[in-house]
Amino acid sequence: MKQTLTDGYLNFLTESKTERECVQNIKILAEKKGYKDISEFKTLKAGDKVYITKMNKAIALFQIGEEKIENGMNILGAHIDSPRLDAKQNPLYEKECITYLNTHYYGGIKKYQWTTIPLAIHGVVCKKDGTIVNVVMGEDSSEPVFCISDILPHLAQEQMKDKASDFIKGEDLDLIMGSTLPQKHNTPKEKDEKKKEKDKSKKLILQLLKEKYGIEEADFESAELEIVPSGPARELGLDRSMILAYGQDDRSCAYTSVAAILDAEKLKKTACCLCVDKEEIGSVGATGMASNLFENMVSEIVARTEEKYSELTVRRCLANSNMLSSDVNAAYDPMNANLFDKENASFLGGGIAFQKYTGSRGKAGASDANPEFIAKIRNCMDANNVIYQMAELGKVDQGGGGTIAYHAAKYGMNVLDAGCAVLSMHAPYEITNKEDIWQLYVGYKAFLGIL
Question: How far is it, in rounded angstroms, from Cα 333 to Cα 346?
Fold first, then answer.
């Protein structure tokens, strides 16, 4: 079972590098387990399994329990967006015989980590006639990849004097798409022709895009193209104990949350697995947790489980719910031990990392969980032999980060952050431990079935 879960997780990471791909693949997994789109149901009863999507970038799975919905739900809430680069609306340009794709970075990244590594482009191009073109370039071994160049060390004396946050500018994170020969390498006739034809390299790239995807340059204006590391998720270490992959924050928690609810059966309380977008930039927008997204989804469930819809029932359902905010924590890094309070850090292989609070410097932006709820979670984990650790992100004054927990807590529900430890978090390739992935799954499943 452990190996099956690991294999499924590796495949999910490889095939789900954008929010849209995550939602699509979660739908496929859910439908295999009997879940159906909520639009197919006028009423819902105990045992029914439905999913609700929003703009193809957020999804919630619900398994209706035996108890009345106003008694609350057990919720696993994760996010499926990850730090990356996004193509701008007018992205293609040629500069001195090289064609670039202009980008804007998304989420908290170290910009220098994104240079000189193989990159791929995933996303959609929406044409004016309503056609949606799915784009994946740079993943198949037969395809070319893309890259952002950097200065050679021989000429980088000035660059190396800058702070790490400054020596690669955001506006310099532009993807190399193609090139053409400079004029000095052309014959006299070719030089004359080249003077007449401006942006030859860019035009060739546009021609290739039209041949493969049927898109024009103007179609970039209504495109959503994400630049991500190329290649599959891989096992890490000679002992194969770890996983190296893009997007494990927070797809490690999203995948195990989905796996847990899909394997849960005959629940007393209604269970929900919520996978949202935009967490890395503040949970904003229509598909982020700061919107009315989740409240609207719960309203759809209440409208189908109750004889008469009541806003009060929705409010009671949310207030009486329990939620694990399934998000990762920073793994203790022996090479940078001075950044951590070792006694309160999470370790690779230490099992689920529960965080009473997140936030930064004085718990700003945190959802400080009630100790009564933490005690119930501890009892649940111990009763099911789940390995877990209590942890925080780093030393008090080093910084910090947030999750979707405080957005859920505004409804009055119990919320506790619960995820796995991640080394090199927010890097193009992040590191997790296989045992932690397993403990997430069994812990999440226990939470859905007992509390």
Answer: 10
pTM of the model: 0.94
Matching residue, tokens 């009541």? 310
Distance CA 206, CA 224 (A): 17
Phi/psi at 355 (nearest 5 deg)?
Answer: -120, 115
3-state DSSP assignment of residue 366: coil
pLDDT of 84 > 80? The answer is yes
Distances 365 to 46, 288, 417 between C-alpha atoms, Å: 37, 16, 13
Dihedral of CA 286/316/406/323: which sign?
A: negative
Assess whether pLDDT exceeds 70 at residue 187. Answer: no
Q: What is the pLDDT of residue 165?
A: 83
Q: Report, in this order, helix, strand and coil percent for the chain, each rounded to 5.
A: 35, 25, 40
d(C-alpha 279, C-alpha 284), whole Å: 7
From CA 303, how far away is CA 299, in angstroms rounded? 6
Distance set, CA 153 to CA 59, 159, 173 (Å): 46, 9, 18
Please state, rounded to an integer, the average pLDDT across all residues of the chain.
93
Q: How many helices (H) and strands (E) does the chain have?
A: 10, 22
Cα–Cα distances in Å, from 373 out to 266, 314, 370, 379? Answer: 23, 22, 5, 10
Using DSSP bridges, classify how beta strands 430-433 and 242-245 pair: parallel, antiparallel or unpaired: antiparallel
- What is the CB neighbour count within 10 angstroms for residue 113? 17
Q: How many CB atoms lie within 10 A of CB 144?
A: 12
CA atoms within 13 A on the CB side of 150: 15
Q: Are strands 359-360 and 234-236 parallel, antiparallel or unpaired?
A: unpaired
The residue written with tokens 């905010």 in the block is 325
Reply yes or no on whether the pLDDT at 406 is more than 60: yes
Tokens of 346: 């999470």
pLDDT surpasses 60 at 260: yes
Structure confidence at residue 183 (pLDDT): 67
Question: Hey, which residues does 51 pair with through a beta bridge?
Answer: 37, 61
